[in-house]
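Model it.
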Amino acid sequence: MFTFDQLAGFIAVAEELHFGRAAERLNMTQPPLSRQIQKLEKAIGTELLERDNRKVQLTPAGGAFLEEAKRLMALAARAPVTARRIATGRSGVLRIGFTAASGFSILGPLLEEVAEIIPDVDVDLQELVTGEQIEGLLTGRLDLGLARPPFDRDTFDSHLLYREAMMLAVPEGHRLARLTRPVEDADFKDEPLIMHSPTKATYFYDLVVKLLPIQHANVVHTVSQVLTMVSLVAARRGVAFVPHSATLLGLKGVEFLPIAGMDTEQPVELHAIWNRKLENPALRRLLQDLEFRAE
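Modeled.
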C-alpha cells in the first residue's frame, strides 16, 4: 500500500517533470524522493514516470493516476475539517420523525429554524406515527421526533411545541354548521362518526374517548391519519374529531366547528422528543440554539 508522502512526491514530480525541482519544492533531497517514487510504482504495479538523463515524463498510466492522486490528497486534506464540523454539529445528517398532523402545522417553521441554525446539515424526514417514532429513537434510526404523548420521560427529554383545541369536522352545509354556538355533546350524538384507530392513532383515540361521549354504534369508519378523516368528511361519509391544525389542510367541502369547552382547554399536545442518550452533535447543537429544555 502506498503512503500520502509517496503521493505528494509523485504529484510534485509529475507537475515539475524534474526530480531536482520537485525535491526542492518538497524541502527534501533528490535520492529519497526517487526512492518514494520507486516504492509507489512497486505498490501500484506499473511504471508511472519515464525518466532518463535529459527528461522526465508521465506514462499513460501515470497521467491517469495523477488525477486520482490529486483527488485522494484533496480528500485527505478535507477529512479533518469534515470530522471537526460533524463533531461540532455543523455538518452531518439529522433524522427527524413527524406525525402527519405536524407535517401541515409546525414542521415547516421548524425546518426553517433548522436551516438557519445548522445550514450545512442534511435533514432526513420520515413521516411516522408516535409509536414508530419512539421505536426509531430507541434504536437510533431517528434523532428527533415530533410526537404525541405519552412517552417514557426516563428515556426521553422533551419540549412542548404547542397545544391546540379539538374541533368537529363536518361536510360543507351540514346542519351543525348552521349553529351560532359551539357544538355540544347532544348535537352530534346521532351523527355517523369517522373515528381514530385505537391501535394506530392511540393518542387521538384515547383523548376523544376521554373527553367526549362517543357512541361507538355510530362509528362508520376507523382510520389512522387526520388527512384521511378529513377527506372522508368531505366525501360526506360522516363527521370527525380533528385537531385545530387540520384547518390548515384547505380541503374543499369541509367545515370545522368549535366544540364547547375545547377553546379554553386545548387538550391536544405536540412535543419534540429525543433520546436522553443523544449522540448526534448536530442534534445537540440544534437543541442548544433552540433552547429546548427537558420538561
